[in-house]
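Structural prep section.
Before we set up the soaks we want a predicted structure of the protein with phenylalanine in place, mainly to decide which crystallisation condition to try first. Input record follows.
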Amino acid sequence: MTNRENFGSRAAVIMAMAGSAIGLGNIWRFPFIVGEYGGAAFILVYIVCCFLLSLPILLSESIIGRRTHQNTFGAMSTLAPGTHWKWLGLLTIVSPLIILSYYSVVGGWSFAYLIKACALQFKPENVEEVTGMFAAFSSSVWGPLACLLVFLGLTALIIFSGVKKGIEKFSKISMPVLFVLIVVIAVYSVTLPGAMDGVRYLVKPDFSKLSSDAFSAALGQSFFSLSLGVGTMLIYSSYVSKDENILVSGTGTALFDMLFAILAGFAVMPAVFAAGIAPSSGPGLVFETLPYIFAKMGAGGQFLSAAVAILFFLTILVAALTSSISMMEVGVAYMVEEKGVSRTKATAGIFFLTLVLGILCSLSFGTLSGVKLLGNTIFNFCDRLCSNWLMTLGALMFSIFVGWKMDKAAVRDELTNGGTLKANSRMFPFIYFLIKYIAPLTIAAIFISGLLA
Ligand code: PHE
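Run finished without errors. Recording the tokens verbatim:
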């Protein structure tokens, strides 16, 4: 095996993992899902899902990754040699690459919108144009493709620089900046006239609004948001040294991710209410509604709203990049460690592969919109395939593997650093119970009920 790098400190581990977790899922997806499923009550369900179901999966991936210090395929082959578990390793190489392809399309849009914001294109005189801008832009050919290329190129550049000089450095610089930015935007948003209705919507639960499919939506959202079931947390954990406390880094990651999602809710929803727009306006919320709001409201003058628009799309772009690098790393680590390819060649290979699929996903908003896979456009097909199926399947398999296949003593050893972490040792029976029974059974039940619904 090649000389592997490790993250340099606990802060680096948490920043990298939180970097993977915090992304479009928090800023783009979370607000509109909360909007669709009725606000505060959904957020409560989401929080419970995160801690009871998603955190055990995150810990399962951490246990496998840190135990083996290998890529996903190597890890499964080492822990369960000669078994079919290697397919789980392979699945988690393919699925992050599919996600990376369509994720980069949206990452490219945020780059484009950052440029539009800098060019002061969200003007109050042409508000109709601002809302129509998204459909026109996303269905065009060259603009989105150029932005996709830039986004994937930046991702490849960071990955190419390595674990410490690339992933660790970029995450350590950008995560604190992201938190500051989202707080600034949230403060701006809640102080807009009429914003208080949006705040109420986020903090006052109305359980009558909770539909039965809210549970599978909350679970899906928390898997997506915490980057679970696709090997990204496994690969990052494989760069964690033996003396780190993976219970602390895992819990820290989940807490930061949740905090960021809630802050993003406060950045988006109050502004949406202030502008009198329906909170359930769906995926277009961030790219259609927000530029409209920035153009229309202009609280504190046009200069301030232009500045906030720039900060907002910069936040999305950087958050998306700290996530996309984690997706690319899974495949690159596999190519380097299993196939003996150099890091440069592996990065280039994965870059081109995802670029091709990314181009198809991007064109499926315009030129290729007629091409349907099981009734979905290419972009939607990739998204549904991954977020509804592959992530859940991967998550389920990881918890079954750690709970039922791995030796219990090895699991305890990993979670307690050979029994030296006393608090972890005391909590071990509870965590093991979550991993072995609660997580797989509940995930399977929610998954099956979602299929039948
Ligand atoms: N968690 C990321 C987000 O919230 C998305 C992601 C999914 C990242 C899967 C890695 C793997 O945007």
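Observations: The two ends are 47 Å apart (CA to CA).
Flagged for discussion at group meeting.
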